């Protein structure tokens, strides 16, 4: 099954048209820097929507090096992940990677993860104020690294699905997101596969649940009075949304064991990077 060409074409034209409208209105500067952000976000979201991880973890430090204010950058990343997460779950469903129909096998775990993710974010924001973040970061890095190693060692194994595992996973992953600002995808995608969810479906379900998580976090930032830099937000969102239809078709073509191996390898890298930041 493949997403119809006309849907992908309409999506690409709509996203590009929106970008041009903001460009014409003077909200976005014309230049190589803007084009570079669009291409960077395109590449990061292509990786994230294809393997279920890596967008915020990769994009945030790069844009910080460009000199953007973290208070502007964080809500911008969350808004783009909120929009691209829901868009990716739609295109994954259209491509046949996941079945979100009412009687399908994936709607229930996706909805459960979304709800648990909201609970985990709220709990994480509250608890992070009283817990040493350096210790938490080390623990999170160990958990992510352990999940990646276990997944790599069991690429050829088949696991039995258990809903309680997925529910616990959603709370832990979203708490991770709240206290560290990243690491949601590696833990949630890899953990789902370990819990018995197929690789393609795990990637799509992660996009769906992360959309809800980032929506709640975005609303929290806006309620708190955070401002948005439209000159940054528009190219970030544009690049992310343009990549979504392509990534869904990439996942559709990949062998299931290759997806699991790729997720395992990237999860291990994310775990090592998290530990490195905490210890160095």
Structural class by sheet pairing and helices: mainly alpha
Low-confidence stretches: none
- Residue share in β-strands: under 5%
Q: Write down the domain tally.
A: 1
Put the structure in a nutshell.
With 280 residues, the chain is an all-alpha fold. It has 11 helices and no strands.
Account of the protein in words:
This protein is 79% helix and 0% strand. The mean pLDDT is 79. It has helices at residues 5-24, 32-51, 55-65, 70-94, 107-128, 133-153, 163-180, 184-194, 199-223, 230-253, 256-279. The chain has 11 helices and no strands. Helix 2 (32-51) packs antiparallel against helix 3 (55-65) and helix 6 (133-153) runs parallel beside helix 8. By secondary structure, it is an all-alpha fold. The protein is globular, with a radius of gyration of 18 Å. The chain has one domain (5-279).
């Amino acid at each position: 099954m493949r997403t119809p060409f006309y849907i992908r074409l309409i999506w690409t034209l709509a996203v590009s048209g929106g970008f041009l409208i903001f460009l014409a209105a003077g909200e976005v500067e014309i230049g190589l820097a803007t084009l570079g952000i669009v291409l960077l976000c395109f590449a990061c979201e292509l990786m994230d929507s294809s393997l279920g991880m890596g967008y915020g973890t990769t994009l945030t430090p790069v844009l910080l090096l460009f000199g953007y204010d973290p208070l502007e950058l964080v809500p911008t990343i969350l808004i783009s992940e909120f929009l691209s997460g829901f868009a990716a779950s739609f295109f994954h469903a259209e491509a046949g990677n996941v079945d979100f129909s009412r009687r399908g096998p994936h709607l229930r775990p996706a909805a459960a993860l979304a709800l648990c993710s909201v609970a985990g974010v709220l709990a994480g924001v509250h608890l992070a104020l009283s817990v040493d973040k350096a210790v938490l970061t080390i623990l999170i890095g160990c958990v992510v690294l352990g999940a990646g190693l276990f997944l790599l060692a069991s690429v050829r194994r088949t696991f039995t699905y258990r809903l309680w595992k997925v529910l616990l996973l959603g709370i832990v992953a979203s708490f991770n997101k709240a206290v560290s600002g990243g690491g949601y995808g590696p833990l949630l995608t890899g953990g789902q596969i370990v819990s018995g969810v197929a690789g393609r479906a795990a990637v799509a379900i992660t996009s769906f649940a992360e959309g809800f998580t980032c929506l709640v976090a975005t609303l929290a930032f806006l309620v708190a009075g955070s401002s948005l830099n439209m000159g940054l937000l528009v190219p970030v969102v544009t690049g992310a949304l343009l990549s979504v239809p392509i990534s869904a078709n990439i996942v559709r073509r990949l062998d299931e064991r290759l997806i699991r191996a790729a997720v395992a390898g990237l999860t291990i890298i994310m775990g090592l990077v998290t530990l490195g930041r905490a210890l160095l």
